[in-house]
Amino acid sequence: xxxxxxxxxxxxxxxxxxxxxxxxxxxxxxxxxxxxxxxxxxxxxxxxxxxxxxxxxxxxxxxxxxxxxxxxxxxxxxxxxxxxxxxxxxxxxxxxxxxxxxxxxxxxxxxxxxxxxxxxxxxxxxxxxxxxxxxxxxxxxxxxxxxxxxxxxxxxxxxxxxx
Length: 163
What we know:
Shape: globular
Helix content: 10-25%
Number of strands: 10
Strand order of the largest sheet: 3-9-8-5-6
Distance between the termini: 15 Å
Largest sheet: 5 strands, mixed
Strand content: 25-35%
């Protein structure tokens, strides 16, 4: 009898929590996707980041994971103008850990570049592009709010109270 009463109280409490919190099966919660930038290539001068982004949709709640050799590369978040000109002089944020996780926490444009130059200098002079960004190591992602058919997990509906 005590077990039955305990179970009854449990189910009533669960039902009340669902009703009181306003949860319903039509609500959804964004489950966020972690994208490893460049996939197996990672963050390097060999990546084609325009092609990489062309096959993805980025939403608020997703995360970009940049994996790179910190001896040769870094990661800078910059504004759109500095992205276009590959200007590393005034980054919004600078990362140099070699494995950096960047949460996409608001809609809009995010711009990233590598601010490193080719070294030694004599080698850089033989190239058309002196810096990694000019060689293509830059990324632009457009982040939107999640839609109902993408990245969502339905909220659980509480079990009905036993009769």
